[in-house]
Amino acid sequence: MDYNQLAETFILAAKNPSKSRVVRRFNTYSHGEHQVIFYLFKNTGKPIVPSDIARYTTTSTARIATILNNLEDKKMITREISREDRRKILVGITDKGKKYAENAQSEFVGHIASILQAMGEEKAIPFVENFKLFLELGAELGEQIEVQDDTDESKN
Q1: Has residue 20 got a pLDDT over 80?
Q2: Are the beta carbons of 13 and 19 closer than 8 angstroms?
Q3: What's the CATH architecture for 31-119?
Q4: Cα(first)–Cα(last) distance of the chain, in Å?
Q5: Which residues pair with 92 in a beta bridge?
Q6: What does the domain layout of the chain look like in residue ranges?
Q7: Which of 41, 38, 40, 44 is nearest to 52 (CA)?
Q8: pTM of the model
């Protein structure tokens, strides 16, 4: 099997302008404000500082500050000084933010469910399992490549 050819077919399918709307929609829900509001929603009630969000999203703290400013302007989050450590700012989600996250998550799940339903059970179940495997292997191989890059740089 020619895996390079298969990879090119995969990339072309993902980049196809008529099909890329699906990818863009997925990216919308997994980046920026959406990603932050979903993280806060999932962790409601826990003390969260901006650096926790930056770590989770693999985003700079400066970018997180901008996102938090926007979400605060939209009344979706609150920020307050920690009572235990006055140097820390705690971030929380408001009722408006919770409603937004619930609606957005429901909409997103609905879109994915519609696609999976159109595929049919026979194709949808293996697709999801294979996609999970694809992401896991991609993460593992990505970490190996990063370690190799770090090793190569230290030799120079």
Answers
A1: no
A2: yes
A3: Orthogonal Bundle (1.10)
A4: 37
A5: 78
A6: 31-119, 121-156
A7: 40
A8: 0.72
